[in-house]
Input
Amino acid sequence: MMSEPTKEDIEEFEQTTKQRVASEAFLIDVNGFEGPLDILLTLARTQKVDLRKISVLELAEQYLKFVEEAKKLRIELAADYLVMAAWLAFLKSRLLLPPDPTEEGPSAEELAAHLAFQLERLEAMRRSAAKLMARDQLGRDFFVRGIPETVSHNRKITYTATILDLMQAYAHIKTKDNFEPLHMRERDHLYTMEQALERMRTLIGHAINWGDLNQFLPDGCRDDPKFRRSATASTFAAALELVKEGKMEIRQDENFAPIEIKTKAPE
Amino acid sequence: MSTEQSDTLFQAPPMGEQERMIEAILFASAQPVSKKTITDRLPHGCDVSEAIAHLRKRYEGRGVKLVKVGDGWAFRTAPDLGFLMQKERYETRKLSRAAIETLAIIAYHQPTTRAEIEAIRGVSVSSGTIDLLLELEWIKLGRRRMTPGRPVTFIVTQVFLDHFGLESERDLPGVKELRDSGLLDNRPAPGGALGDTSQEDDDDLENTDQDDMFE
Amino acid sequence: MSTEQSDTLFQAPPMGEQERMIEAILFASAQPVSKKTITDRLPHGCDVSEAIAHLRKRYEGRGVKLVKVGDGWAFRTAPDLGFLMQKERYETRKLSRAAIETLAIIAYHQPTTRAEIEAIRGVSVSSGTIDLLLELEWIKLGRRRMTPGRPVTFIVTQVFLDHFGLESERDLPGVKELRDSGLLDNRPAPGGALGDTSQEDDDDLENTDQDDMFE
Output
């Protein structure tokens, strides 16, 4: 049969509950910690001393106790927390034992000093980060020009071309189609008016009677229609020229009838 | 001057402070700020008109000035310093093929008309091309042709001769020399096939790719 | 004071005019403008440093101030007037504790490697954290460490300095005290205990970089 809980029992219960809640709160918050170093720094703060004067031995004990608590409460700690626990257990034993002169590597004091340095450094960075974020910030406390004027870029273009460019361009045109507007092309199949005039002048003296203009066409007309056309036109034009000069007469009986010419008798 | 309002609940900041506040607001705002908006943003009891007048005076003759834009106020660069907001960039460009061919024809055949240039090139010549060459002062107008329509002729200028290092137009290498130097060989011109119709668009200004090269 | 150079081809504008010009240039830009850029844009022969000194003095106690940001200069509103600027305020992304600490470590230890950041914080640094800081343009890549693996380093940027109103890395709060107390030293763990990953990149060789940064 159970006896009524005494006042002391109740107080004791409440006390342990408080402790448990406190420790659990601490542990449940493990997720909020950023790794073993973070927890070590939090634990170190409970020593309420300058981190330079921290007792690493005491800190190691605090941490190991924390890991024990976590095990009791069946909280699964990540591997790095357990690695740290193992390392601190090793450090603790080294710190408690007299130094072994035969042992190689850094002394327990050196290891402890480095751990203290790491904690101090992390603490310093956290303080600095807080100071940084507490500064006046752009866009929150001070501001940039709201109407920035953009620099306009003016282009000044210089065109270049060399004499070679010029010559190549001209050469390109010249080779393109051999078009030579200022020099008459050699035209094999054409008969110019100058040619016709020259021929007519030599022949006109013989044309005492009316004769067909076609008789005065140059040789080779029969085979080449294009040349014949050209020669006919030129000869006709030359004939008109000679009529104009008063050296010749010209007549045509009706449309499309043969055109006849004869030398004009001197008056 | 503002009348002192002894009955306001909160004392308005001193005039100098009001000025600072308006200065900061106008500096940081993305738009000109109206007097009403300034009044709304400033502590109660400020004399915005007077503060603006002071501030405007303070910026007189400075590199920026306080100006009224519509019904708002804004800082603007002093107009005489506008040149600082411009950056001049010098670019060298090659003349387009159309331009250089036109120029060559004018040089070799001057005085020559636009119709002749077109006959020689086999494509029409854009006004842009002629304008560019005129602008560069490499060509100028010659005497009009005494033929129907009295077309204008183009001739090359002293600037042209200077640019190409020629004493006179007669120094231009002749067709025979071109042929001898191999320039008249019947080989395709660089950058285009013969009778390439793309030549019809004589753009001188189109070489945006090239622009990038010079930036 | 600048020495008058009577032999310069073009007379530099008077100092007051130089001041105005710089005032206009800096007012027009939202970003800090480097001394070199100012010099390039001003007429030949200007004494930019002196003109800036005058200008800075002129704006002392005003609603906007002339501040030095890294190697540039900029006008910014006076921080005590921030309360007037609700309209201009923009919400900066709330940074995680990890991001803030990582940023501080980079700022105070730069150039620093990811391994060093991890050694200081005692936890690994997520890529997201570094990416976020890079995206904010508060950090950028520095030179690679000349150690095995040639790890990249991180350094803070002008945007970072501008954001936190710092003239240079030397003005980080408490940086001198931290240096003097040896807390910014790169002190490797004795015997490589505690899984100190910074051991991987042999930090002994690189300290010259850091000296450059702060001395």
Remarks:
- The CA atoms of residues 134 and 140 of chain A lie 11 Å apart.
- Residues 179-185 of chain A have pLDDT under 50 and may be disordered.
- Helices of chain A lie at 7-28, 36-45, 56-72, 79-96, 108-134, 163-177, 193-204, 225-244.
- Chain A touches chain C through 45 residues (CB under 8 Å).
